[in-house]
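User:
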Amino acid sequence: MKTLFKSGAAALFLCMASVAGAGGLPQGWTLSDGGTGGIAAAVADLPPSEGQQFAFIDNTGATDLSVTGVAGATTGSALLSSVFSVDTARTLSLDLNFLTNDGEDFPDFAVVQLIDATTMANVATLYTANTTCDVCRAVPAIGGPGDVSAGVSLNPGAAYFDGQFAGLLGGIPYGPGKWVSGTGGATGWVTTSYDLAPGSYQLAFFVGNVADPGLESALAIDNIRTDAGLIEGFEMAPPVPEPGAWSLLLGGLALLLGRRFVGRGPRAHRGVPA
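Assistant: Predicted structure:
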């Protein structure tokens, strides 16, 4: 099993800011400077996995994700959860759903990391996804950014884009096709689980472009929990964020490592000229 980042190598800095995304974010959650995302309710082909709301980020953001070490990464969005703690061994689970309009030649990616909140070291890679080929498996990723860590369980163990229209999510439609050819839309909810030792943790979510910034992909996030109960379900009224920027040091991290566009043509984000 590959791990996307390894502790003890070059430091990775991401400037994070508390910002109001689509509907805001929970208290203590931070979205990267230039990142795009927020809280949404059910849309076509994308109901919450629990409750009435879920969080999301997408790759239309301007955050420089080349620092993640994912080969060819350009821009996108990063999201950091608030700190949560467990005082005894627990199983962490969360639900994730990857959506895309992009395709094989210019793949997008998603990564979810479990971070030690005290040392900011990576504990485990909980989820990876990319747009791969026209009909290939999307989760876990084939090729970059690599596989999940040992000890991580995915249910289902593999996920594919469903070829259905999904959205609007953050004003963007997804699927049913993807760039050039193949199946786009959403993968459906995948539950990732990992056994935690006692300690304090955060979750880091990344969605980015590879090679160019064209076409959209997004990651929906819901039902973060342990076997002791819910950590975050995104059901609160959206808070007004505090002003100012945060600096996040993911200490000592480095890489180990349609509806739209069914034919060839200019690549561009929705509403942005090619």
